[in-house]
């Protein structure tokens, strides 16, 4: 762990290799995969809105959200989908409303405890058949992309957040007047990415690409 943060920073950040970080982001978001000739599906996640109703549906889970998470290589099984969009939908939507509007996680000064609305939302999602920690995080990130950091085993291993992810990431982004948050914004701009890619996503991608073994060209 960094002495300054509750997470272990991805290597390009801890080494101060901003050019390397920009290369990682361009590799993930803007370069086509050699084997397929297409962009990574995850690169389309942040702006994917085929119905054009995403902004109207921020406080309710829809079938489109279940398709969206497949872009990040996970799938809600059929029984879970029926529960999420059926008997549990009103409960989950009420929790989304309670979470409040999307905002930068770095701006949250209060600790995210088990009593926080967003934690209760994650818990409620994880109680659904086939929806574990990873899928729950991606569903919430779909609705609150600036507030909720995506989690999977790869990211958890790199950031050393397998025991706890949300609160350590929040504290790290909030620390030192949001220094890490602003650095990630700068890297996003240098990589030529749009504002629909939030800082928690930049951190996620830098960690995931390291965990998958990508080595920046400029490092």
Q: What class do helices, strands and sheet pairing give?
A: mainly alpha
**Cα Rg:** 17 Å
Percent of residues in beta strands: under 5%
Helix content: 40-55%
Average the pLDDT over all residues and give the rounded result.
95
Alpha-carbon distance between the two ends: 22 Å
* Assembly category: single chain
Overall form: globular
Q: Helical region count?
A: 11
Number of strands: 0
Number of domains: 1
Largest sheet: none
Helix-strand sequence: HHHHHHHHHHH
The stretches of 5 or more residues where confidence is low (pLDDT under 50) are none
Give a brief outline of the structure.
With 219 residues, this protein is mainly alpha-helical. Helix 7 crosses helix 8, helix 9 packs across helix 11 (199-211) and helix 10 packs across helix 11 (199-211).
Topology:
Layout: H1 11-14, H2 18-29, H3 41-44, H4 63-68, H5 78-85, H6 89-99, H7 117-126, H8 133-143, H9 153-159, H10 166-190, H11 199-211
Helix pairs in contact: 2-11, 6-7, 7-8, 9-11, 10-11
Q: Can you walk through the features of this model?
A:
This protein has one domain. The chain contains 11 helices and no strands. The chain has helices at 11-14, 18-29, 41-44, 63-68, 78-85, 89-99, 117-126, 133-143, 153-159, 166-190, 199-211.
